[in-house]
Amino acid sequence: MKWRVGDTTITKITEIVFPEFSEVIPAATPEVVKKVQWLFPHFVTPEGKLTLSVHSLIVDTPTAKLVVDTCIGNDRNRDPLSVMSNLSTSYLEDMIAAGYRPESIDYVLCTHLHLDHVGWNTRLVDGKWVPTFPRAAYLFDKKELAFFGAIDENVQDDFAQVQRRVFADSVQPILDAGLAKPVEGATQVCDGVRLIPTPGHTPGHCSVLIESRGERALITGDFIHHPIQFHDPGLVSPFDVDNAAAVATRRRIFSEYADTPTLIIGTHFAGPTAGRLVRDGDGYRLDV
Ligand SMILES: [Zn+2]
Predict the structure, then answer these.
(1) Which of 61, 121, 148, 156 has the fewest CB atoms within 10 Å, i.e. the most exposed one?
(2) What's the count of helices (H) and strands (E) in the chain, helices before strands?
(3) In angstroms, what is the span from residue 280 Cα to ligand 1's centroid?
């Protein structure tokens, strides 16, 4: 799947789709989902379960090639998150088949450092984690590095323990290889690509704004997990570090981009993945 924004193209490389992942927003029960008819058929199952996609977005500008978020990755023990554990997908082969060799990538942008956004930063070669994109500058927000780099080894929380392993195999090898470029908040990455702070899901969470020839696209990251949160920005996720800040970010960004031509590209939206945001009653709707 591909979109054009002025002279820039954006290509989706799908790693895995979870047809039913309603635990990401527990209050979005089938009864709630069924009241939001525009979610059918792309974003939910006929039974009203939330579908989530895990994909990278390759941004190809006239001057640089960027990968936004690097999914879960192969060969990693993520237990007890069994659905994300020990994957063996054709992600890298699919990226190459789409015309992007790892050596051709100039920048890797991680909207945040959760396990499903940093995995392919590295790959396992002869028992060692090495950078997948050997020529790239990997941009990490300093708040993310501080937060996820400081998880206590004795923490009594399964998800935090998984994130400790994630940091060790998907972030630390990039720091060790000297490819990391720590950034702070709003950052111009290259001509036509900017990071904008969208905190709440994690402390240093960023979204990616792409501009070319007067056209714009916004890659969300996880300040929104599922399009039902356009309908009701107050629907929260247990994976958010700060629910209230995440709600505030959604309300702020939605009001800024609603009824504009900006293409909104969801980091976990299934099916068509992108559309225009329009006001709809008290909330919003993604027009795909
Ligand atoms: Zn995610």
Answers:
(1) 156
(2) 8, 16
(3) 26
| Residue 279 CA to ligand 1 centre (angstroms) | 25
Whether the full predicted model's pTM is greater than 0.90, yes or no, is: yes
Q: Tell which residue, 139, 120, 119, 116, has the closest CA to residue 268.
A: 116
Q: What angle do CA 244, 245, 251 make, to 5 degrees?
A: 90
d(CA 268, ligand 1 centre) in Å = 7
Domains of the chain: 2-287 (3.60.15.10)
Q: CA 284 to CA 229: how far, in whole Å? A: 9
Alpha-carbon distances of 97 from 90, 94, 100, 244, 267, rounded to whole Å? 10, 5, 7, 41, 21
pLDDT tens for residues 2-30? Answer: 999 999 999 999 999 999 999 999 999 99
Kindly give the distance from the C-alpha atom of residue 117 to the centroid of ligand 1, in angstroms, as a whole number: 6
Residues 6+ apart with CB under 8 A from 123: 73, 74, 75, 92, 129, 130, 132
